[in-house]
Amino acid sequence: MAFWNQWPDSMKRRGRVVLLSALLYLLGLLVLWLAPAFRPAALVPFLLAYAAVGRGPFRQAWNGIRSGEFLDENFLMVIASGGAFFLGEWPEAVAVMLFYQVGELFEDHAVDKSRSTIAALMDIRPDTAWVLRSGEERSVSPDEVSVGELIRVKPGERVPLDGILRRGATSVDTRALTGEPLPAELAEGDAVISGCVNLTGTIDMEVTKAFGESTATRILSLVEEASGRKSRVEHFITRFARWYTPAVVGSAVLLAVIPPLFLGNWSTWLYRALSFLVCSCPCALVLSVPLSFFGGLGGAGKLGILVKGGNYLEALSRTEILALDKTGTLTRGSFAVSCVEPAEGVSREELLELAACAERDSSHPIARSLREAWGKPIDPARIGTVEEFSGYGVRATVDGRTIHAGSLALMERLKVSCPPAGANGTAVYVEEGGVCLGSILVEDEIKPRAREALTRLRSLGVKSVAMLTGDRRAAAEAVAERLGIDDVHSQLLPTDKMDAVEKLMSRRSAQGTLAYVGDGMNDAPVLARADVGIAMGAMGSDAAIEAADVVIMNDDLESIADAILIARRTMRIVRQNIAFILAVKLGVLMLVAVGLANMWAAVFADVGVSVLSILNAMRALNVKDMR
After folding, report:
1. Where are the domains of the chain?
2. Which DSSP letter does residue 158 get?
């Protein structure tokens, strides 16, 4: 009974009413079975059971009549069960209402479970933050903290705002954001995102984003928006129900009136018409389709994949062409030294040390990669004057030696001859006294398992994978070759990317879609134009996340394949439910009309089908062993 304890009070009250009605119903059946001669005595428990379990539907049916929108499942249940009672079919009348309420209870449980899964995503924003002001800790609301202020986060607390770690070191649990089960280790200077849980040490961090722009707030906005965006199938079901219900009510009236005019036996045909109404109730169809999409959205959220609505889940399931940005999407967006080529008479260590010292004070990503490759502390006393040539490189005095470090264009300006370095990355040349000391090749690192992720996407039926980048053609083709991408578009401006996506979209089939994956501000227009825009990473640009339809919080390319799998399974469940519900209902409706099925079969076609379709819809929440 663990599920009973998890139910809200409203569901527990309904559960007690259903249980009481079931006991009274069994009592009525017992009287009919043991003392058929005293049949009127059974009317009392049946009436009490009917009154208890029918109170809600009667009230909602009355409200529908008053508002002019009464052709719903409550109206159908009231008319059908009331007519059965009038005809003296007490067990069937109570069974219609009782099992209808059992189905409603089961529906509430399923919806509550789906909502609780998404609610877990919502529980990522704390109500307070410890801000450090005038040397004291003050507990304030996160929206009262300004950018640049220091906040303290203690072990076990959830990080309230985005920032940079300034004091301390810790590990953080990011499962609610990224789905990643392993803690992330953070040290001074690392970025910290709101919504994760501090696990070990007390840390002080400098706030870099206001409360309204923080990662946690953005995620909550995305989750809140998701439930309001319906898929094409959901819109169709809503429209379908509007004409379906009046049509079946009209058919039931005709069934009750036309045949007895020629064949007589009004009570038999009225009973069939009432059974027809019970069977035709569209609640299974109206409920199971949205619940399937709701489950798909919740299941994706468990893996750190935020889909902004059922319409995007549907479009994602039909992905034929995948276009990806390079920097920050296929690659880390961080540079690393891949090759050191010293000139004759110069050691590898000397070349790397001179370059790192010359770039000691630069904040450029390539300069950082040189210092990281050297890996030793640099004494500031060793560095003399430093002059920077914007876009070319630097001139620096290192241990009294005047050197230049920079691009091939800088060497050409200095009229220094240097052998060309590899074309797969960015080359840094080092010169002293008009002589080239060698070159250092720096490359943007490809993300781990990127090739495996693209292979997996092709195995899922993605027909074409293209890379769109503003980088040089040589660098783009080198990355594409390593990842097995044949369709490469390089040296693109944002407007060029839009043109490239338009051409790619013209290749897709009538039912297929194009998904574009990016992370930067320059990707925002293309993300908005694509059939499905996918933004990579919680720390991606605000513009990209706002324009995208899907946000991959864990920055993992394999999550794109997970998202497509979840979308396709959700659509498969939706189609299964629609086919099953319509097949059973149409079959039972025809049997009822010709007298080969009674109201018990109609109850199964309504409540039984609803329960089975809900169970099937709940499978969309299960994302275990996705890979």
Report:
1. 129-159+162-208, 306-332+447-566, 335-445
2. B
CATH architecture of 335-445: 3-Layer(aba) Sandwich (3.40)
Task: Tell me the pLDDT tens digit for each residue of 491-534.
Answer: 776 678 888 888 999 998 888 999 999 876 667 788 888 899 89
Query: Taking Cα atoms as reference points, which of 266, 17, 191, 227 lies closest to residue 119?
Result: 227
- The C-alpha atoms of residue 521 and residue 280 are separated, in whole angstroms, by 52
Give the pairing type, strands 129-133 and 150-153. antiparallel
pTM to 2 decimals?
A: 0.67
Asked about 325 being catalytic, the answer comes back as yes
Q: What is the largest CA-CA distance in the chain?
A: 120
Confidence class for position 182, pLDDT limits 50, 70, 90: low
**What would the 3-class secondary structure string for 444-490 be?**
EEECCCHHHHHHHHHHCCCCEEEEECCCCHHHHHHHHHHHCCCEEEC
Q: How far is CA 301 from CA 108, 148, 179, 243, in A?
A: 21, 31, 8, 35
Residue 280 pLDDT more than 50?
yes
- Residue 204's pLDDT is 93
What is the predicted pLDDT for the residue at 222?
Answer: 57
Decide if 424 contacts 439 (C-beta within 8 A).
no
Q: Which of 325, 519, 555, 606 does the annotation list as catalytic? A: 325
Query: Coil, helix or strand for 44?
Result: helix
pLDDT tens for 437-467 read 999 888 777 888 889 999 999 999 899 999 9
Q: Are 491 and 441 in contact (CB under 8 A)?
A: no
Q: Is the pLDDT of residue 310 over 50?
A: yes
DSSP H or E segment with residue 397: strand 393-398
Query: Which amino acid type is present at position 211?
Result: F
Side by side, the strands of the sheet bearing 550-552 are 305-307, 550-552, 532-536, 513-518, 319-325, 464-468, 487-489
Per residue in 335-356, pLDDT (tens digit) is: 788 888 999 888 999 999 999 9
Backbone φ and ψ for 513, nearest 5 degrees, come out as -130, 160
C-alpha dihedral sign at 236, 242, 248, 251:
negative
**For the domain bounded by 306-332+447-566, which CATH number is listed?**
3.40.50.1000
Phi, psi of 481 (to 5 degrees): -65, -40
Answer CATH for 129-159+162-208 from 1.25.40.10, 3.50.50.60, 1.20.1740.10, 2.70.150.10: 2.70.150.10
Domains 306-332+447-566 and 335-445 share a fold: no
Name the packing angle between helices 90-122 and 609-618 (round to 10°).
10
